[in-house]
Structure formats: C-alpha cells, structure tokens
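Subject line: Sequence and fold of a protein, written as structure tokens
Area: Proteins and the way their chains fold up in space.
Start of record: The labelled sequence and token lines come straight after this line.
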Amino acid sequence: MSKGFTIRRATRADSKEFLKLLTIFAKWEHLKPPDAEAKVRIIQDIFEKKRANLFVASSEKKLLGYALYFYSYASFTALPTLYLEDLFVIKDSRKKGVGKALFNRCVEEARKNGCGKMEWAVLTWNEKALEFYEKEGGRRDGVFVYKLDL
C-alpha cells in the first residue's frame, strides 16, 4: 500500500463495485453505459473466459479506479502488445497518484509478459488525459483509429 491505496489484480468480489465505476466512466465519456447483458458478459470475459484483465486501485475496501486491458499482437515485431482499454479514477481520487500507479502497473505487466509495446486511445477532447499520457512518456502514433460497429 502506498499513499493510502493499493494496486492489485481484481477478484470476482470486486465485480459489483467495478461495474459501478464502469457506468460512471461511460457517462463521463458521454457514452451509453453497459446494459445488464453487457455487464454479465464483461464479468465473464474477465473472470471466466480470461479475454480481458483488470487491475483495481483500492482503499479500505473501496475501489478508487481501474485499468482494463487485453493483449493483441504486433506483426512487424512479432511480439504481443498490451492494449489499455480503460484507465479510470473516480473524481475524488484524481491528482493523488492513483492513475499513475494503475498506468505503471500496466507497463510492468507488459514488460513482464514480453510485450514490444503498449497502446491505448484517448478521446481528442480529453486534454487532461492527453497531458497525463504525454507526461508518462506516451506519444501520439500518427494513425487514425477506425471503428466498425457490428
């Protein structure tokens, strides 16, 4: 524990509180929160199917934030890539090192698993996140990200 919080791998017991944070994050990003079926799927994908991984920041049995990630593959380096899907910290815990600790835990995980790189996307309007990631050594990649809803 450092600075009053711990970064750890999530357990199934964290599911209810994690889903609350996920809903808050979706609303903050001006997106529709996951419906009941999506909530069931994400918990199964993390804890049963192992499609995604979850670190949480906790303090006195309360979740302060989370980092959700999964692995993809980079063909030119022939190495895995840790893709950071979400990094979210509740408003009251921002500017206290929680986000930085979650981010650094993902960097450690990527190195431990032989990744050649770590990637993530940032909404263009989220200036605070852009500043944070650039301060942590992240750089804009010069590619456009496309999406096809299925």
Summary: The domain at 6-135 is CATH 3.40.630.30 (Aminopeptidase). The radius of gyration is 15 Å. The first helix runs from residue 15 to 28. The beta strands are 6-9, 53-59, 62-74, 79-89, 117-120.
